[in-house]
Amino acid sequence: MHNPDQSQDVTAGEVLAPYLHARAADFLRGLRLHGESGSDTAGAEEAARTLRAAARRIGATLHTFRPLLDGPWADDLRTELAWLSGTLAVEQACTSRLVRLVDALSRLSNGGGPVPAARGSESAGLSVGAARAGALLERQLTLARTRAHSAALQALGSARFHAVADAVALLASEVPLGPASAAPAAEVLDASAGVAERRLLDAVAALPLTRAAHPYNAEALALAAGEAQDAPWHQTRLLLRLHRYATEALYAGGEPDAVLYEAARALDRHRDAAEAASAAATAARTPRIAPATAYALGVLHADQRHEVEAARFAFQRAWRRTTAPVP
């Protein structure tokens, strides 16, 4: 992980501080965009994305390079940034999930998709239930999105958020470094980033990548407890993010690793499909729904679990390229 541009005269703090200053400036830009957005929905969404992206990067950097920082300060700010990022993410997740599910229902009811149950004589039953299933999902997810929007507005107006914003504003000019940050960057930064990389490698090694090497895993699709197998993949996604952000901090201004980004996108798609499948299953448990509606939701659930398997396949293909020997 050593950056060849880091000489022995450059300290870890001299590398880490400018990166954190820049991410804090990104956060403050998002805060300004939020203040300027008013009733502009698109502007508010852009502001939330900017705030979340900056919060994730700052939090990840505080986590990975904690040994070089003031530990209690880093822990406190990271906790608050995780709260903020998580709160702001829910509304956008509800919107994306609804779009994903409605689009999938439309595709399936028109005979598209690889789910066998959506074909043949049962396709008529699917068409009947798809409209009602879509309406049910829209009611449930719109309600969830409305609640998430209210929670986000409440959070952004709270004293807790203003305290976070004040802390990040200070970070834009001063980073509370610890004694270890005075050591050569090539030594201590690589050591901290290496811990994040090893955790990721261990997590990937524990995944069933051999099974994921088959794009449409009928055996996995047949498992009723498929959702229970998602957790290690979700954890790998978070560890890959930490690794990517650590690399970004070390190579500030460098080109991002395209293959690692592709692997990360595959795990994002995996998360999205898994959560969409869960939403379909939740809707199917709604009391007193018509059999045709329940049937459509069952087909939709199977379709999204199929998308989970396809995303795992895409991840393993990308990951194989990250570990391929250089010719």
UniProtKB/TrEMBL annotation:
Top-level taxon in the UniProt lineage: Bacteria
Residues in CHAD domain copies: 9-324
Name of the protein described by the UniProt record: CHAD domain-containing protein
Source species: Streptomyces cinereoruber
